[in-house]
Amino acid sequence: MVRTSSLTPRSKFFIRKHRKWPVSPYNTKWHTLFNQHQALQTLKHSPLNPPQNLLSTLIHSFKTFNSDPTPEAYNFVLKTLTKTSQLTHIPSVLNRLESVEKFHTPESIFATLIRFYGSANRIGDAIDVFYRIPKFRCDPSAVSLNSLLYVLCGSSEGLKMVPQILLNSRAMGIRLEESSFRILITALCGIGRVGYAIEIMKCMIRNGYDLDGKICSLVLSSLCEQKGLAGLEVVGFLEEMKRVGFCAGMMDYSNVIRFLVKQGKGLDALRVLGKMKVEGMKPDVVCYTMVLHGVIADGDYKNADKVFDELLVLGLVPDVYTYNVYINGLCKRNNVEAGIKMITCMEELGSKPNLITYNMLVKALCKNGELSRAKELVSEMTLMGVGVNLQTHRIMLDGLFCKGDIDEACIFMEEMLDKFLCRCCSAYDNVIYGLCQKGFVCKAMDLLLKMVDKNVAPGARAWEALLLSSGTGPCLVETTWTGLVNPIEVD
User: Fold this and answer.
1) How many whole angstroms separate alpha carbon 233 and alpha carbon 467?
2) Does 64 score more than 90 pLDDT?
3) Is the peptide bond prior to 50 cis by the omega test (within 30 degrees of 0)?
4) DSSP letter at 313?
5) I want to staple 147 with a disulfide (CB 3.0 to 4.6 A). Which of 111, 257, 301, 436 is the partner?
6) Phi and psi for 120 in degrees, rounded to 5?
7) How far apart are CA 339 and CA 460, in angstroms?
8) φ/ψ (deg, to 5) at 249
């Protein structure tokens, strides 16, 4: 008990006038916070089964400590119900929060609840919670709107509701933020509506928002994936974004170059490569490889040599893909020997030629009729540790057949059947057709039986050649010529 003599004159005057102590020891703020904390701890440690008693447990806990429920307590109850998937009990909690409680509810509670409803595929409930936010004495902002937009943009049905949600949010006094635009643009790019994404991005710029480099890169990447789009549109969009402050990176230029090469515009891709160097950016090997592929596809071998020499001068080390593209260009201009010499250059620079490299050269040699040189290269492949595959044997088999060396083609075919498992191969049909055309029907039948034993299905051309050679129909030569004009009629 406090002695009256220990009080100051001012305190004594207060007691004589009001007949009570200046501050009640049972109504201070720390006491209220302590009771609320104790009530919340009681709620958290109470048994949660069955879950329908959770709301009543909340009310009882705070009533026991003579205090009012707090937002933290309601947040705990809602999180517990969502974690246990007790969706049917959430409306009763929200109704009491709306009609009984008087405090200002934090918006984060509703943002979390909206995301949960979205993950549970209950879009209608998520929208209902968003519209009810003002009734909970809470001012909605872009936080809750972004949560709803994220949910709606995750499905085609939800995307249809986005325009109406945006109009209603404006009536609710919510201002779109940069994060809101980012969600919308990402969703539009995901469904291929890049044109609308570009319009929204331009709207951001007009409204004074900072240009987001990641958003620009996303739109540019999505634009490059569009079909039926002209190369000038992509390059024009890139230049337009650069004028408003977009700094294109290596990946952005790589996407543009890849798009132009796919469109068959190798020269335009070469120009983009030049712009990169003008802007002080050093293109990597991937960019040079794509441009090299583009100019070779256009038949511009002069620029192909310049591009390949340039990347070497810049100190870039070509990888096996770069060499394969360049060797393919050499083979296209019938300079196979130069392509073979490139293998030595690859090994000197530490880039080991792979199976694709050798198959390209073998195919070019077979096409030129240099079968002996092709066989030497195949042997070299084995010595270098690059094992031949089915594609290599197919190339050799087609080369032997085109040259007319049917006997050696038969030997090669038997080796293929012994070494490889192939369900169907057009080269086998060519050999059987060639045998039948020369009158070696028995040999053709032997190969056919071996194909069946190896579970290889003969094609229509092989069966037709055998049937026509059996003497039951027109001769093979007659059918070959007259079949081009009048098809065989079957009675």
Assistant:
1) 57
2) no
3) yes
4) H
5) 111
6) -85, 5
7) 37
8) -100, -175
- Residue 115 structure tokens: 């995301």
Query: Which residue in the block uniquely carries the two structure tokens 């012994």?
Result: 418
Confidence band for 51, pLDDT divided at 50, 70 and 90: low
- Residue 145, token pair as written in the block: 């709107």
Q: Over the stretch 420-473, which tens digit does the pLDDT of each residue have?
A: 656 566 767 777 777 777 777 777 787 777 777 777 777 777 777 777 776 554
How far apart CA 399 and CA 446 sit, in angstroms, is 22
For 240-286, the DSSP string reads HHHHTT----HHHHHHHHHHHHHTT-HHHHHHHHHHHHHTT----HH
Greater confidence (25 vs 164) lies with 164
Q: What is the pLDDT of residues 472-487, one digit of tens each?
A: 544 544 444 334 434 4
Q: Angle at the Cα of 204 (from 201 to 207), degrees rounded to 5?
A: 155
Could you tell me which residues come within 8 angstroms of residue 131 by beta carbon, excluding any fewer than 6 positions away?
168
Place of tokens 């028995």: 442
Q: What is the rounded CA–CA span in Å between residue 279 and residue 56?
A: 68
Question: Distance between the two ends of the chain, CA-based, in angstroms?
Answer: 125
What is the CA 478 to chain-centroid distance, rounded?
55
Query: 147 is written with which tokens?
Result: 């949560």
Beta-strand (E) ranges in 150-253? Answer: none
